[in-house]
Sequence to fold (336 residues):
Amino acid sequence: MHIDVFNSEAFSLTGLTQAINDAAYAPGRIAQMGLFEERPITTTSVSIEKVGDTISLVPSAPRGDSGKVYTAEKRNIRNLSCLHLPQRATVLADEIQNMRAFGTEDEVQTMSDWISSEYLTKMKRDIEVTQEYHRMGAIKGQVLDADGSTVLLNLFTEFGVSQSTAAWTLATDDIRAEIVLLKRQIAAKALGTPWSGVHVFCSSTFFDGLIANSTVEAAYDRFQNGSFLREDYSQFGTSGFAFGTTGVVFEVYWGNAGDQELIADGKAYAVPMGVAGLFQSRFAPGDYLETVNTMGLPYYASQERLPHDKGIELEAQSNPLHFCARPDWIVEITGS
Fold:
């Protein structure tokens, strides 16, 4: 008896969604670091409440005076909408003509494996690259669309803050002194919030200028017994290097997202590490009847038959929101 392949459980919304979430992929560096806290949500937007952002001093007054009048800080609520990232592919009957084993009992498994490897894995990879692009955008303060210019989410506008910046003359500056100023700059924004260190995502040109600085070269020659001169720390796959005991790690962020560069030449972004809730990811449910008001998954996949049974149309989607709750804590460094 012939099995109706595309009407089996393996090709249902549940089956395809399970397959795409299980598919292997090569995550970007930020995903590998686990910098963003990921959680599912049942809605398509996130409400963020901000209660003040400053600590004020209490002025002295004569004994018996009423003193400073305290008023509750205003609560600001921002609603950030999850983005919708859909992809579609068409699988024609001719593609599976010589794969179907008529009358056998394992054709569903064969077809399911082929659809997963040839389509779902690749669709998931493209979505994941897009999400890495959005994560870097959240670090930089603006999440951009695939064209590299359309702003999907401006975190500076949403939270009413501005970009923190620093300018380093890489060839001549005392980098250790610049690092001290960088950490003070972040501490002034953090207002007592504990953080464990600083990770600096660099463009290759910034990194090259940094390691050419005489103070950097000398410091690492002593700190690592000369290994800094023997090893190429700018190569892809290295985890960066820590500058002495400063608690600051510099790392080249390699690669582009499609034809969009993630960090412009001569730029670097200093991120305080170990701050709970600073970077967050939320995943909303897919826009299917079966997923309404359910906990969102990172990826969804579904299929629909083409007219006259000529094949199927596959869809893969993700509905993420990647954001930085305090974008002004991230320092954009320009190296010259």
